[in-house]
Amino acid sequence: MDVSGSVPPAKEGEPAAAPADPLAYEGVWRFTVPAVEESVPQARRAVRDLLGRQGVPADRDLVYALLLIVSELVTNSVRHAALLSPQVAVEVAIGREWVRVAVEDNHPYRPKALEADFGQTGGRGLLLVREVTRESGGVCDVEHTSTGGKVIWAALPLAAPAL
To answer: Angle at Cα 117 formed by Cα 113 and Cα 123, nearest 5°?
Structure first.
């Protein structure tokens, strides 16, 4: 899945493909929330409202998956990065065929998706994000930012709109 938004390069001897006109729901939105527990439901509502306001053709299962991912990623930033990152950034990028949600904080350490330990009551958020993303046919990753923090993102496929 190409989540870069770019047009693939033309093969030798073929004319270059023209970029398609953006659909009404395509774009990138970014907001920040304080690194406190109350921000988790606020971020989830903001993403849900954005998807609805933009008219994104997402079924209930896709919206649920995206909101679960946002909840888990913001919760992790609040719980594990708040000392180094008093603000958490949430970005939603919507393309013709995918929706990408990302959460960025200033903590430098790359998190690990822990295996399920049934004796623990927590620690499985990233494992859940990975599984929900995989089941939805998407991809997820962690990247370092130029400022020394990290961004964790998941991109899920979007049903192609009828033209």
So the answer is: 45
Cross-strand partners of 99: 94, 156
Tokens representing 162 are 């009828």
Residues 158 and 105: their CA atoms lie apart, in Å, by 26
Backbone CA torsion sign across 43, 46, 48, 51? negative
At residue 136, what is the residue type?
A: S
> Does residue 62 contact residue 156 with C-beta atoms inside 8 Å?
yes
- Check the CA dihedral 24-32-97-9 and report its sign: positive
Q: What is the pLDDT of residues 15-42, one digit of tens each?
A: 555 556 778 899 999 999 999 999 999 9
Q: Are strands 150-157 and 98-105 parallel, antiparallel or unpaired?
A: antiparallel
The answer to whether the beta carbons of residues 63 and 156 sit under 8 Å apart is no
Q: What are phi and psi of 29, to 5 degrees?
A: -125, 140
